[in-house]
Amino acid sequence: MMTKTMTKKNGKAVKSGLHSTRIDIPSKARTQLVDILNESLGRTFDLFSQVKQAHWNVKGHQFYQLHLLFDEIASELLEYTDEQAERITALGGTAMGTVRMAAFATDLEEYPTDILESMDHVAALADRFAPYCQSLREYIDKATELGDADTADLFTEISRTADKRLWFLEAHLQTDEG
After folding, report:
1. How many domains does the chain have?
2. DSSP letter string over 115-162?
3. Of 23, 30, 119, 149, which is most buried with the most CB atoms under 10 A?
């Protein structure tokens, strides 16, 4: 049995629904959890692709170190997309995980294609990680309010790693002068 819900995103109707599950979270809460998980999935997948964009196009005297760092960050984000998608389906939802669905779900700023220098890529990524980290903290609060400690814990794990990566990026931008 599937419970149908209809949500609006950017003026377009999106059908979603829940499959039955024996998880003891009420269907209304699960519907909301699936919605925020899918929103986060879209943002995470978008951020993953933006980090890969930087990885492929970075230039400059720190090329090698940043090329490796960006690839490491991208791998972590890709792992989190899988964990979020699996949580969505465990809750009885449908993971909205194609590239087009991610583009529809994200509100992260588009990655610039006119930069080459290593520190410009670092700054562009830091500019995207900051709102991503903020949204994760909001998701933690929402999942907690909905009584789902497991989803809140997943968001906490992602948040902890994302904050650390934002710190790594910002450390490259800081100088001895201030």
Report:
1. 1
2. --BHHHHHHHHHHHHHHHHHHHHHHHHHHHHTT-HHHHHHHHHHHHHH
3. 30
